[in-house]
Amino acid sequence: MGCGNPLRGDDGVGPVLVRRLRERGVPDGVRLVDGGTAGADVASRMRGAGRVVIVDAGAVGVTPGTVYRVPGSMLANLPPLHVLHTRSFRWDHAVAFARWALADACPDDITVFLVEAGNVAMGAPLSPSVATAVDEVVTIVERDYPAPARVASEPGS
């Protein structure tokens, strides 16, 4: 699942990666999702999946294009419900929220790849260092997640 806004330069790394994987071919049982920027959508799209890989831009102040691999267990704590709001509900909240809201329908195997963003200005292209990081993450995803843990049905099917 690629998260982010492709209209804001490096913030679009997740959707760019999803597009790249789709162009390369998708194994049976694997579902690629453009998670956009709404954390609630990210949470609901996890329902029934055996494994979820989330890719998004990060901003911790390191060199743009730096890739971090974060196990979902590190994001398991649910923020207090009274501080969650649709404008601030991001994918990191979505992981914890999905564990609470989906219960047994939430996948146990969640991994997040964060790519340090450089330029997130409106209308900016993906920076060269982040484009290189997309290639790196594509290689990792294809190597480490070649097939689904179990086939997830599309919602409503």
Automatic annotation (TrEMBL):
> What GO terms in the biological process aspect are recorded for it?
protein processing
- A Pfam match is HycI
Would the keyword Lipoprotein turn up in this protein's UniProt record? no
Q: Which UniProt keywords apply?
A: Aspartyl protease, Hydrolase, Protease
Q: Which residues form a coiled coil?
A: none
According to the UniProt entry, its GO molecular function terms are: aspartic-type endopeptidase activity; enzyme activator activity
The keyword Hydrolase is annotated on this UniProt entry: yes
Q: Which family does it belong to?
A: Belongs to the peptidase A31 family.
Could you tell me what this protein is called? Hydrogenase maturation protease
Q: Which organism is it from?
A: Umezawaea endophytica
